[in-house]
Amino acid sequence: MEKRKRKLQAHLLIFLIVFINLSLCRDVPAVFIFGDSVFDAGNNRVSKNCSVQADFPPYGSAFFHHPTGRFTNGRTVADFISQFIGIGMQQPFLEAQMAVMNDSRKGYPSNGINFATAGSGVLPGTNKDLVFLIHGMSQGVTSIQEQLRQFQTLVDQKEINKSTVERSLFFLESGSNDIFNYFLPFDPPTLDPDAYVQAMIKEVSNIIDQIYNAGARRIAVFSLGPVGCVPARALLPGAPINRCYGKMNVMVKKYNKALENLVNDIPTRHTGANAVYGAVYDTVQHFRAIPTRYGFSDVSSACCGDGPLGGQLQCGKEGYKICQNPEGYLFWDYFHPTQHTYKLISKALWGGKQSRIRPINLKTLANLTQNFLA
Q1: What is the pLDDT of residue 140?
Q2: What is the pTM of this model?
Q3: Where in the sequence is the signal peptide annotated (predicted)?
Q4: Distances (CA, A) of 338 to 131, 265, 343, 350, 368
Q5: Residue 286 bears catalytic tag
Q6: Which of 13-17, 65-69, 366-370 comes out lowest in average pLDDT?
Q7: Which of 57, 240, 261, 316 is deepest in the core (most CB within 10 A)?
Q8: Domains assigned to the chain
Q9: Which listed residue (82, 336, 340, 346) is catalytic?
Q10: pLDDT tens across 344-363, in order?
């Protein structure tokens, strides 16, 4: 009898723990996402006139089993964090907009919207040559400034409830394309590296101001990863193959440091706002330092591509080669991580210590009550 009682108590305790964990994030109804190909869930796929695409196999092969427009073999950080919160993955804005316009759905999704578009940067001019005029309207890469305008329009038109905005999480990640493009040989920059980084930070500051003014109170800003280590550096004249591109990573680290300072100032500049800085650069470099601990057999080359490091041909293009075990690779294609890498990063951001995300992690940010957000 006593043994049965203890067993019943143990089961009750497990139930309570599960119930508490499931109810912890009940106050986060949605996630709104702004950024580049690290977060893009298919906006470029809808915009067929954009040349930056991942709408063909073997993209999406690990989880969705078909291409979704995500620039990886499965889910992204935004997808995993939504799973941890307990809400569905966010639909790309252009896809949702098309459904509303076609009357196939009555309103925009209640669990948030993904505005991120591959190829964009924090500087308005980044990859502007990938935007085309079709019948007088610009189509293609959507700048992060335009992503904010898309969101603001939905708020102004009351397509998104203001109270939902205030309770939601906001994700911002951008800048990799700006810095990589700085080193392209056919478009030499007019600014020195420090001035270029400062111009980027100024834009990010304006973006954060706009997000806050639109009602955001829980803001997560993610650092850039080690851009100088992506396999696509093989495309750049003079970039080393046997090690990361040091000059590029120096710029990345300067940008990340200024970005963290900016994030730290958000609660002071904006009443009621809570902000966190995700140290993605340090997290990825940690994986690279001790790869086998995290299941990696290769942290340098792309699983899918061709040429040195698999970095001279996009995955899925004619002539590409693919590895047998994507789970063992840090990089999926010449720019982007595998689903396995994204999952590890997501876990670090969700429940990690201050070496991974600060001053609090995403789980704590998600669990802040309205009293803390007022």
Answers
A1: 65
A2: 0.90
A3: 1-25
A4: 27, 33, 9, 18, 31
A5: no
A6: 13-17
A7: 316
A8: 29-229+248-285+351-365 (3.40.50)
A9: 336
A10: 999 999 999 999 999 999 99
